[in-house]
Design brief:
Order of helices and strands: EEEEHHHHHHHHHHHEEEEEHEEEEEE
Number of domains: 3
Number of strands: 15
Helix content: 40-55%
Structural class: alpha+beta
Strand content: 15-25%
Distance between the termini: 82 Å
Largest sheet: 5 strands, antiparallel
Strand order of the largest sheet: 6-7-9-13-12
Number of helices: 12
Radius of gyration: 31 Å
Length: 384
């Protein structure tokens, strides 16, 4: 068993029809046998390679790659990894929409949040789905390995399901920043970007871990992707991603903290903000909203008057109202202190929980009053 030197006896102008190709047993690429110094003799048979990386990998464990050849074609034709990966993407999207809808009481608010940060959501969901696809592929390949030939092959493919689950378990981190989109936690809202970046880098590290396991146990698919992975060290990729992730997340975290501290210094805790009343008059119902004096750390109060001559006002103001802070953090009202359902004139006070001094804008939304999908009232705390 030894690598052979390049054969210089072949004519330089060989007919194309005389060319003989062979499949690289590591990555599956077609390589020429006529002009290739990268070949290796094993048990009386010559095997040809596209690169020194594939040659080196084969010489370390020929049995694994030769046994791999027969099963890869079957595995590559199986769509289960793609199907399960797609399901993983869907599950994370369902979790996102479920959390935001439950927190805000409206599927519409979930779509609003999705529109605002859709690119981050897709990055997180795609990363998790890709890992789930790799996990499915790996389980499938291990099952094939353990049912064939020699003990050596079986041993090379032995990876515990527990370790695979551990690789993907950090996918739960993806949910954390999404909760910060709408849940009542100021910290998560303030540090949303660093938390999202933790999820992104966690996905990338998980992918390199999974690919490293597949690479280590000679389970790579025989295609261009398998060829790329075979020629690179997943350990180096993983370590680089961890280092980059620590730096990027730390810089983002400290930058966000510094920005929050600057904003906090610009507004004193005992500041009183007075905002102007705003009116919406549509479909025979006039709605006037007057914010009461705002003090940070205290409940936010809106005096609301509904006026009409013909429309029934039988609705619960707490069920149709949301308060959005800085276009990314939504509060539900705690209480309606005023007239009950019915009649043509209703007034009262809509009460929300307190806001922090970092808040820059408020948007009160009333939905489906007299058939109007949304009536919005917006205030800028720094200028209004």
């Amino acid at each position: 068993m030894k690598p052979h030197d390049h054969d210089t006896t072949k004519p330089c102008c060989q007919e194309e029809s005389d060319l003989v190709s062979s499949k690289d047993p590591v990555c599956g690429m077609n390589v020429s046998e006529n002009d290739n110094s990268l070949h290796y003799e094993y048990q009386g048979t010559d095997y040809y390679f596209c690169s020194s990386h594939c040659l080196k990998a084969f010489t370390k464990n020929p049995v694994a790659y030769l046994s791999n050849q027969g099963e890869v074609s079957k595995a590559s034709g199986n769509n289960r990894p793609v199907i399960f990966g797609t399901i993983g993407v869907g599950v994370l999207l369902v979790i996102f929409f479920g959390i935001v809808t439950l927190a805000n009481g409206s599927i519409g608010s979930a779509f609003q949040e999705f529109k605002r940060i859709w690119y981050w959501i897709f990055i997180l969901a795609s990363g998790f789905g890709f890992q789930l696809g790799l996990f499915t592929y790996l389980k499938q390949r291990i099952a094939e390995k353990t049912t064939i030939a020699t003990a050596e092959v079986a041993a090379s493919g032995t990876v515990s399901t527990g370790s695979m689950v551990a690789c993907c378990a950090h996918g739960l981190v993806n949910v954390l920043p999404l909760v910060g989109v709408s849940a009542a936690a100021a910290f998560l809202a303030t540090y949303q970007l660093p938390l999202i970046l933790i999820g992104v880098f966690s996905n990338l590290v998980g992918i390199t871990i999974m690919l490293g396991i597949i690479q280590k146990h000679s389970l790579l698919p025989q295609n261009a992707f398998g060829h790329f992975v075979a020629g690179h060290s997943m350990k180096k990729f993983r370590n680089g991603l961890i280092a980059a992730g620590v730096v990027v997340v730390a810089l983002t975290f400290f930058s966000t903290a510094a920005q929050a501290a600057t904003q906090a210094g610009a507004v004193e805790q005992d500041t009183v903000i007075t905002l102007k009343a705003k009116t919406d008059d549509q479909k025979r119902v006039k709605v006037k909203v007057t914010p009461q004096d705002i003090r940070f750390g205290e409940p936010i109060l809106f005096k609301i008057v509904f006026d009409t001559h013909s429309v029934d006002l039988s609705f619960d103001p707490t069920a149709i109202s949301t308060l959005e802070l800085d276009n990314n953090f939504i509060l539900r009202p705690e209480k309606w202190d005023g007239a009950g359902p019915g009649g043509h004139h209703r007034s009262g006070t809509l009460i929300f929980s307190s806001i922090s001094k970092e808040t820059k804008s408020l948007k009160l939304t009333l939905r489906n009053v007299a058939g109007v999908p949304e009536r919005t009232f917006v205030w800028n705390l720094t200028s209004d």
